[in-house]
């Protein structure tokens, strides 16, 4: 029987959480502006967003490494902002969390457990090291480790405590591609097996999609959308989310609502849309390359000319210039078709996949 045991899964709840960094002589900086997040017991949530949006600040407040300006954080039914980091029952895998240089990796991993009187500390360290394929690192000193190795040690240290809540900040960023895939899978297996309620901060969308049950997309200190990958991809809450999530990037072009259910794009184009925005409204039109397709002759469509065609084996990407638009648009095509520069095409998309946004504030016009 393994020494690793299932944790008692607990919900992690953030309620109207704010962080203002105060520094003398300067205006306070409002980095986190009222976050509400309800993470189910055993759920893995990826926190996604551009640099500076407040991801790390949020994680540090949960971990107790940063004070909370206002709002509440609860693990199960226990409010934690007043507790010191060591009493929060949280496993933290942050890069900045230093290892003790005089101890070898094994010592670093077992130190905290032994300090708390955990009896089978050594066996637990070995078991985690095996699962993360890092037993060869156990006798080494931190000074001799590569950044990728340090990262695996940080992950092991977070996991070895068997915490009900796990916080990981870019846990795989220094690993090479092959290791990254392996550790990512093992992390997901361990997380499922042991039921840690987990937040992972990542810049890598593929990593977020592969690991997470739900994604929280953040910008400007605010959660812009919280949902499954499909919900966020298929039904983006606003222009920021539509633009931030998805590869290749969504096409965003200017347009004017023609009549209900139809929007004019470029000089001669028309697209169907499920939006009920009123006729005459100036809008930003969003269509994902995956949703755009070549139109039949009788369909509402946007005429254009192929500028570049990239054959990527599983699909093609046609970059198409459209009369009257400042930027070209990208269409993902099926593998069997081939286009050349100068080919005339007509583009369309399903009405539910032609999103309209307010050109000023980016709000979705449904
Ligand atoms: N101690 C601090 N004092 C003042 N401002 C800070 C402090 N720490 C962070 N900030 C600011 O708060 C904002 C959010 O920072 P945070 O590190 O949380 O962002 P992030 O989303 O994690 O970014 P990254 O992905 O680059 O780490 C940034 O504008 C940052 O400059």
From TrEMBL:
Coiled coil: none annotated. Pfam families: ABC_tran, TOBE_2. InterPro entries: AAA+_ATPase, ABC_transporter-like_ATP-bd, ABC_transporter-like_CS, ABC_transpr_MalK/UgpC-like, Mo/tungstate-bd_C_term_dom, NA-bd_OB-fold, P-loop_NTPase, Transp-assoc_OB_typ2. GO terms for molecular function: ABC-type transporter activity; ATP binding; ATP hydrolysis activity. SMART domains: AAA (SM00382). Gene3D superfamilies: 2.40.50.100, Nucleic acid-binding proteins, P-loop containing nucleotide triphosphate hydrolases. GO terms for cellular component: ATP-binding cassette (ABC) transporter complex, substrate-binding subunit-containing. Keywords: ATP-binding, Nucleotide-binding, Transport. Residues 12-245 form the ABC transporter domain. SUPFAM superfamilies: MOP-like, P-loop containing nucleoside triphosphate hydrolases. This is Carbohydrate ABC transporter ATP-binding protein (CUT1 family).
């Amino acid at each position: 029987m393994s020494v690793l045991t299932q944790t008692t899964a607990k919900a992690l709840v953030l309620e109207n959480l704010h962080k203002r960094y105060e520094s003398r002589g300067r205006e306070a900086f409002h980095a986190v502006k009222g976050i509400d997040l309800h993470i189910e017991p055993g759920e893995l949530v990826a926190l996604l967003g551009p640099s500076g949006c407040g991801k790390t600040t949020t994680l540090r407040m949960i971990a107790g490494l940063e004070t909370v300006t206002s709002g509440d954080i609860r693990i199960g039914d226990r409010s934690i902002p007043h507790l010191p980091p060591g009493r929060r029952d949280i496993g933290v895998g942050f890069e900045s969390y230093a290892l003790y240089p005089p101890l070898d990796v094994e010592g670093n991993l077992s130190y905290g457990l032994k300090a708390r009187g955990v009896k089978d500390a050594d066996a637990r360290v070995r078991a985690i090291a095996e699962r993360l394929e890092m037993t060869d690192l156990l006798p080494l000193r931190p000074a001799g480790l590569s950044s990728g190795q340090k990262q695996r040690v940080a992950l092991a240290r977070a996991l070895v405590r068997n915490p009900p809540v796990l916080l990981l900040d870019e846990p795989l960023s220094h690993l090479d591609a092959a290791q990254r895939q392996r550790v990512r899978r093992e992390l997901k297996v361990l997380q499922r097996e042991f039921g840690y309620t987990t937040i992972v901060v990542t810049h890598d969308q593929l990593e977020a999609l592969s690991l997470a049950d739900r994604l929280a997309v953040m910008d400007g200190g605010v959660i812009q959308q919280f949902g499954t990958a499909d919900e966020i991809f298929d039904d983006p809450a606003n222009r920021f989310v539509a633009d931030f999530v998805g590869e290749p990037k969504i096409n965003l072009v200017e347009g004017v609502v023609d009549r209900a259910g139809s929007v004019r794009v470029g000089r001669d184009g028309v697209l169907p849309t499920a939006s009920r925005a009123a006729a005459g409204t100036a809008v930003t039109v969003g269509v994902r390359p995956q949703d755009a397709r070549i139109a039949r002759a009788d369909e509402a469509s946007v005429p254009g000319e192929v500028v570049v065609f990239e054959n990527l084996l599983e699909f093609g990407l046609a970059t198409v210039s459209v009369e009257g638009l400042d930027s070209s648009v990208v269409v993902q095509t099926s593998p069997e078709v081939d286009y050349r520069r100068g080919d005339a095409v007509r583009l369309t998309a399903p009405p539910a996949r032609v999103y309209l946004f307010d050109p000023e504030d980016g709000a979705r016009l449904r």
